[in-house]
């Protein structure tokens, strides 16, 4: 390794990783954008997330990391169920709406209620209905693991998020990647 690169790496290893640096660096890991929704005591709740990760195929598990103290975090844990609405490229405004703290995210918004009685955003790229399998605190977030009970997929394009900006995710027509377990 050239000595300049090594020096840079050492400098980075010694630097404290503050929250902004963490956010900026992880922002290089491009993601989709989803809204997690639930209904607790008859009131709908929802928040925009990009911390969505698939955890297990059998059983089907996913996780989201939710800020401690956010209204939707408490509501999801109280209700014990939630939906993950994966947004389409046309739903940037919904992503912004569900990221505004303290606002009524559902004002004037038509939602449907599927089998598991959680509000679901119409025309999302996909949605997954989940039951909370477990949850635990990690740092300043609650990791919520959901067992997926039902899914729905639609035609279209997903909304992307990269470097703190919404972005396109482009299918360049490459060969599918075949991987085995
Ligand atoms: C693209 C994007 C991704 C986000 N991802 C997360 C996330 O994964 N976890 C989280 O707690 N907040 C995330 N947020 C911030 C929440 O959406 C925001 O704090 C929300 O308003 C909190 O919900 P509340 O109004 O129910 O408190 C994200 C915001 C944006 C715009």
From TrEMBL:
Matches recorded under SUPFAM superfamilies: FMN-binding split barrel
Keyword annotations: Oxidoreductase
Xref: InterPro entries: Flavin_Rdtase-like_dom (IPR002563), NADH-dep_flavin_reductase (IPR050268), Split_barrel_FMN-bd (IPR012349)
Flavin reductase like domain segment(s): 26-168
Gene3D superfamilies hit by this protein: Electron Transport, Fmn-binding Protein, Chain A
Source taxon at top rank: Bacteria
Protein name: Flavin reductase like domain-containing protein
């Amino acid at each position: 390794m050239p000595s300049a690169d090594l020096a840079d790496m050492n400098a980075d290893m010694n630097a404290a990783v503050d929250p902004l640096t963490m956010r900026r660096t992880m922002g290089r890991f491009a993601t989709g954008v989803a809204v997690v929704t639930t209904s607790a005591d008859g009131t709908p709740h929802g928040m925009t997330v990009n911390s969505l990760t698939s955890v297990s195929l059998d059983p089907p598990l996913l996780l989201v990391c939710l800020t401690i103290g956010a209204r939707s975090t408490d509501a999801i844990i109280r209700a014990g169920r939630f939906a993950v609405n994966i947004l389409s490229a046309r739903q940037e405004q919904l992503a912004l709406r569900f990221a505004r703290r303290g606002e009524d995210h559902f004002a004037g918004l038509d939602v449907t209620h599927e089998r598991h009685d959680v509000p679901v955003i119409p025309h999302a790229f996909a949605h997954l209905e989940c039951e909370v399998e477990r949850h635990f605190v990690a740092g300043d977030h609650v990791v919520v693991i959901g067992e997926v009970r039902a899914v729905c997929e639609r035609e279209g394009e997903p909304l992307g998020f990269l470097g703190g900006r919404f972005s396109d995710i482009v299918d360049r027509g490459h060969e599918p990647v075949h991987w085995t377990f």
